[in-house]
UniProtKB/TrEMBL annotation:
It comes from the Bacteria. One of its GO terms (molecular function) is methyltransferase activity. This is Class I SAM-dependent methyltransferase. The lineage of its organism: Bacteria, Pseudomonadati, Pseudomonadota, Betaproteobacteria, Burkholderiales. InterPro entries: Methyltransf_25, SAM-dependent_MTases_sf. It comes from Comamonas denitrificans.
Amino acid sequence: MLSPPPPSDWILRWQHLLAAHCTVLDLACGAGRHLRHFAQRGHRVTGVDRNAEALAHLAHLGEVLPADLENGPWPLAQRQFAAVIVTNYLWRPRWPQLRDCLAPGGVLLYETFAHGHAAYGHPRRAEFLLQPGELLSLCAGWHIVAYEHGVLTSPGSARVVQRIAAVRPASDAADTLRPLQAE
């Protein structure tokens, strides 16, 4: 089996936001480049992908769940993770479940193709390309650490991406401030 490509620069740039040895979900993990990366750093990893054959090669790293995220049931009901990693994948109908599986105080690192990418290659269909500001809308009310939407170039290729590093609030309560206690 070929080695997976290296982790995304975006994921590497913001990985310091994750607590040590936390639970990490790699959604649509493919060949497992981020699953491997976080497992090697002592995190407890869970990878979900529809390709059961690829997942079989990753089972030694942690939990792997073969699941069709677009046509099957959500495989992570009632589960939450300290971090959720998503790269090069977009299926809008799963956004409510994606948001719910990130624990309060958890970190979302998301990077995928965006509007404008069709000029450079696949995917070209609008349903697979984020609209401007779409990840910001997904994370409304969360602490946005970083957000980018633009063209990335590397030798011989270019792509348009949108990416976000966001932290879900520790509490969904409207008022998270506690009164000070007199000494």
